[in-house]
Write a structure and sequence with these properties.
Blueprint: H1 4-26, H2 32-46, H3 56-71, H4 77-89, H5 102-118, H6 122-134, H7 149-159, H8 167-180, H9 186-201, H10 210-215, H11 217-231
């Protein structure tokens, strides 16, 4: 795992600081004790022993990608706050043995429960739920009826930033995903992985936002092409 367990632990404190700053904006009446309790619970979920890719490292990368998209003008301050909240909850429940869509559905339910407990307004809870559910299939062409299309587009791209990671990080990501699916035979894993990554590679446009499309696409296509060649799937 990139950086090892010590590296992942080092991310916890700055991530908690980020959560506390956002929680104060999301739920100003909740108070520091509840903000801190929720932040600790969130980090605990992201730090579960069975995780290899869906860890605080992935969470940190999603938040950094959202920062980049916000700086590029794709999100205003309110949208950026909601997008970061989606980032915190989108893989809060993660079981690699779960049926497709189950993890996202459970994470969305947890987001609603946790945010309501903090006293977050209903419209914001609805927007966060829509963002979490969108990460189920990352269908770039699918219509969405949520009131926050810019938020959904940014979350979509931030969650897929990893496709455009530098080669060393992308190789680490591949190893981490394989470790999470260690229960699958190699042939089964490779066939499933080739189908999923081939779907991304065949898209006319991988990313929804103009910034990600311009700055991340070339690296993403290079990574996908190399992985599919290794897997023996269509490039």
């Amino acid at each position: 795992m990139a950086g090892g367990q010590a590296g992942l632990s080092a991310l916890a404190e700055p991530l908690l600081d980020r959560w506390l700053a956002d929680a104060e904006l999301l739920a100003p009446r909740a108070g520091r004790d509840l903000w801190l309790s929720e932040g600790s619970l969130l980090l605990g979920g992201w730090s579960q022993e069975h995780r290899r890719y869906h860890t605080v490292e992935h969470l940190d990368e999603v938040l950094q990608a959202l920062d980049e998209l916000g700086a590029a003008g794709h999100l205003d301050a309110r949208q950026a706050l909601l997008a970061r909240t989606v980032g915190w909850f989108h893989d809060l429940h993660y079981d690699p043995r779960a049926r497709p869509g189950s993890n996202e559905a459970r994470s969305a339910t947890m987001a609603r429960d946790h945010l309501h407990r903090l006293g977050v307004e209903d419209w914001a809870v609805d927007a966060v739920e829509a963002g979490v559910l969108m990460t189920q299939d990352h269908d770039a062409g699918a219509p969405h009826d949520a009131a926050e299309p810019a938020l959904l587009d940014a979350v979509h791209d931030a969650d897929l930033w990893i496709l455009s990671a530098p080669p060393e990080r992308y190789a680490s990501y591949r190893r981490q995903v394989r470790e999470e699916y260690a229960h699958l035979p190699e042939a089964v894993f490779r066939a499933g992985r080739a189908q999923i990554m081939g779907g991304f590679a065949r898209r006319a446009r991988i990313y929804r936002t103009d910034h990600a499309d311009e700055h991340w696409t070339a690296r993403a296509r290079a990574n996908l092409g190399a992985e599919l060649a290794d897997l023996g799937g269509p490039v």
